[in-house]
Amino acid sequence: MQITICDSYENMSEKAAQMIAEQINNKPDSVLGLATGSTPLGLYKMLVDMNAKKEVDFSKVISFNLDEYYPMKQSDKNSYFTYMLDNFFSQVNMERNNIHMLRGDTDNPEAECEIYEKQISDCGGIDLQILGLGNNGHIGFNEPNKIMELQTHITKLHTSTIMANSRFFNSVEDVPKYALTMGIATIFSAKKIVIMASGIEKKKIISEMFNNSVNTSIPATLLKLHNNTVLLCDHRACCDLLYC
Ligand code: F6R
Asked: What is the pLDDT of residues 183-201, one digit of tens each?
């Protein structure tokens, strides 16, 4: 895993935006895997600015989001669909048909996951996958567990994830207990992975990730097995790697 430590959140977001722009400029019909949460907000803002300045063109880009809460209506203000629409899709020149998001309002989550998995492989797989890092080491919503699910699946969220994400909801009780998420093999099939982490609250899990060998109790350690992964972090999150 290549590690790039940036001096600020803005700098980290800018580097990630440059990587995506480079990917799209080299291959205009690139397939992107996208994440939500607080970490990539700066990245989306920069991509919106670059698109407005015509530095990057999303007209042929195809996207697949990592996950969605379950159950969750697309129109809910806390859905990842609303997040993506508000922070990115409505502000760049992406084609609606090229945007793929798991539906948290499906009656048949298993079928929804199977179709999603097929759609990804029909597009030739993901070229560049953006990931955030959960405080408990999850990637997508692949939570710490003895056994990792490989393909896109429905999963029960850990209490720590529910607590962490309750900051977006009125109360902890309002956070859905389940989610649909790409699996570990889905993420691993990406040709390149960029995992982003910022802020002091990620310092503990970053140091655990590097002080432990590959294990499923810290799913992010599995990324050490992927041959083209970059960890992009700010110095507050990666302080321990710098021994400061
Ligand atoms: C979001 C996702 C999650 C987040 C992770 C970190 O689509 O898959 O794995 O990336 O929970 O969230 P933030 O960035 O809010 O700390």
From this structure: 999 999 999 999 999 999 9
**Is 177 inside a domain boundary?**
yes
Choice from 38, 39, 70 to test ligand 1 binding pocket (greatest atom count within 8 A of CB): 39
Nearest-CA residue for atom 1 of ligand 1: 36
At residue 172, the pLDDT reads: 97
Answer yes or no: is 154 within a domain. yes
What residue's CA is closest to ligand 1, atom 4? Answer: 132
Query: What's the total number of domains in the chain?
Result: 1
Q: Is the dihedral of CA 232, 1, 31, 84 positive or negative?
A: negative
Question: % helix / strand / coil in the chain, to the nearest 5?
Answer: 40, 20, 40
Are 148 and 217 within 8 A, CB to CB? no
Position 200 in a domain: no
Query: How do 153-156 and 178-181 pair as beta strands?
Result: antiparallel
Ligand 1 test: best mutation among 141, 153, 175, most atoms within 8 Å of CB? Answer: 141
Would you say 184 and 219 are in contact if contact means Cβ atoms under 8 Å apart?
Answer: yes
Residue 119: which domain range? 8-192+211-231
Active site (catalytic) residues: 67, 136, 138, 143
CATH number of the domain where residue 63 is located: 3.40.50.1360
Q: What residue's CA is closest to ligand 1, atom 12?
A: 37
For the Cβ of 51 lying below 6 angstroms from any atom of ligand 1, the answer is no
> 113-171 pLDDT, tens per residue?
999 999 999 999 999 999 999 999 999 999 999 999 999 999 999 999 999 999 999 99
Neighbouring C-alpha atoms within 13 Å toward the C-beta of 74: 8
